[in-house]
Amino acid sequence: MASLVGRSEADLVAARGVPKQTYDTEGRRFLQYEDRRLVSYPSAPFYGPAYGGFGYGGFAGRRFGPAFGGYYGSAFVPTVETRACDVTFELRAGRVVGFTSRGNDCVATPAAG
User: Domain of life here (predicted)?
Assistant: First the structure.
């Protein structure tokens, strides 16, 4: 993002695309970009009575329980989380003068060079 400071608004839009929102006040212009993604993490299996298929236990994942007293199935229930980073660029006289970012997915990358 720092590489965009000093660039024109047209350069910013060419690099980042059309902003989600714009706001003009007191000779300053703010362009906001939103990045969202879903991340899924695997979790430990859940073992318990399986209902599905035809009859108790179904066909898939059928196994005997701990004491061989009945059919049990397993399921993996993933954890899903939304990752987000909102970046707002400030422009004066048509040039980027700074930016702010907030969210749980804003990661700084090393500068090239």
Answer: Bacteria
In terms of Cα–Cα distance, which of 98, 76, 102, 80 is closest to 28?
Answer: 98
Residue type, position 106, single letter: C
Looking up tokens 């590489």, which residue turns up?
3
Question: Within a domain: residue 109?
Answer: no
110 within some domain: no
| Among 26, 27, 38, 107, residue whose Cα is nearest residue 78 | 38
Give the number of residues written for the chain.
Answer: 113
Closest CA to 8 of 32, 31, 25, 24: 31
Q: Show the domain range for 55.
A: 43-77
